[in-house]
Amino acid sequence: MKKYLLFLLACIVMMLTACSDDEETKDESVFRTVYSGEVKTLNYLKTSETNEFAVAANLVDGLIEYDKYGIVQPGLAESWETNEDASVWTFRLRKGVKWVDHEGNEVAEVTAKDFVDGLHYVLDAKNESSTAWIATVVKNGNAFYEGEITDFSQVGVKALDEYTLEYTLEGPTPYFLSMLNYVCFFPVYGEFLAEKGDSFGTSKENLLYNGSYILTEFEPQNKRVLTKNPTYWDHENVLIDKIEYKYNKEAATVAPELFLRGEVDEAAIPTAILDDWFKDSEKKELIRQSRSNFYSYFYALNFNPQFDAEYEPENWKIAVNNKNFRKSLFHALDRVSAMLTDEPYNPESLLNNTITPKNFVDIDGVDYTQLEPLAKFTNNDSFNPDLALEYKEKAMAELQGKATFPVKVLMPYNSGMPDWANRSQVIEQQMENLLGKDYIDIIVYAGPSTGFLGEVRRPGKFAFMEVNWGPDYADPSTYTDPFTIGGTYNKPELAEGYTDTNGQPIYENMVNKAKAAIDFAERYELFAEAEAFLIEEAFVVPYKVGGTGYVASKLNPFDAQYSPFGVTMEKFKGQKLLDKPMNNEEFKEAKAQWEKERAEALAKASQ
């Protein structure tokens, strides 16, 4: 009888435990989504691709973060101070923060040395970090990267003690805090990095975590799961327990239907089906505008074509080095027609006439984009059919006997993005109809959905293509640097006829002069001149700001951490799942309320 009672008691305990587990699972907050572009690396110290550092932002914390109004907050640094000219910054770290493995086991404590080790890796040229150029703001950072010095102790980053970190910069940098929001300044546990070597960041086991989530599952082209880190220092502000990503090469197409079936919690709604959703009384309540951001989109003209011979790269090179040819394309692109594939209801609202978006930075209350000579582009539409045809005639006369017409214009797009595919078709027809098929032959090409940057854009396998850039810190140089020597874009330094008297490209000299200016008013004016030069010479065609389109989502975008630069807006920390998606009217009301609260918060922070 005694054994029977014990057995019965054990059964009851097991039943209660099972109920408890079921209840726990039921109450677990899980955000589910699908994706088509797979990450190629988890090594956050190496990548600069958004879909890769978007994962890293949730796995590893840096020194600072931002609140939902865009005001800087302590992260792994509890406090900081700077000298008078903002060239030396000292940070005091939070104690007790842990590095853990993919199973949540504690490995080590986060110390100041981890930030030194992280920067050492980034600035070691053999590691080919694509964010090293940002980190050269640190004294002797560029000299170490270029091999001019080999002793890293001469680089301006020091662990003064276990919890005190000091950066000495190349010069006054009052915006340095905003730079710390980017992956090149993230920490790494040096012993683990040395142990893993080249395998660091290749799997969930070959990474350590100190952020709000741990990568508990990672099966490329299948799924990945981020699970709340139980040891996280700010555990109470992580409100979603799991983030589940499911791979689907047709993600952009199937996501809306998966959302309707309750299988995912967010889906971008392609323009092709947008009208159907707005006309349906039930679906209409599920969609809202996306939140605009400070990503800048523009069309780049490539001066270093590396595409296949069938697309005549040498002929393109001759044509693109003719200013009138470039100007004809610049004025022929009808950006409103292109934007209709993204925003069919109010396309003009998202157009961007410069590379740097409006309201990014200002000087004495004047928006940077309103500084001369940049203002003449800011306040005028580049699309002008009469000018386009005028420049066409000039180009054909100057290129007679040099280039073959029609010039083949290879224009790839990411095949995982339906709206981009549609937009490419619109642009092909619109520009060929205006300029004539005797002049240009735009060839639309479907590039890969995974690895598009590495396989198409960075190797230069395009002639004319939509590209984008997001800011990394609060200074105009974050938008001008990508076009300098060694930058990530269309190699304007190779353009013929733009070498200055010192043997350097004219644009390079303009940017370097701006960087050398200490007075902020002078600095911003010089950067505005450099950016205006890029546009005036038609090296690029500015197009729009990011965050376009419509989405069905169980996330409130105004709960998210906010910052125009760095990785902040990729974080799930602070967000929670809504009981039902926000509709467009609710979005507009929430946006107005957020803007009011943000203005008040910024005013308070500046006191």
From TrEMBL:
Domain of life: Bacteria
GO biological process: peptide transport
Keywords annotated in UniProt: Signal, Transport
Gene Ontology cellular-component terms listed: ATP-binding cassette (ABC) transporter complex; periplasmic space
GO molecular function: peptide transmembrane transporter activity
Annotated coiled-coil segments of the chain: none
Protein name: Oligopeptide transport system substrate-binding protein
Signal peptide feature range: 1-20
InterPro entries (alphabetical): Peptide/Ni-bd (IPR030678), SBP_5 (IPR039424), SBP_5_CS (IPR023765), SBP_5_dom (IPR000914)
Subcellular location: Cell membrane
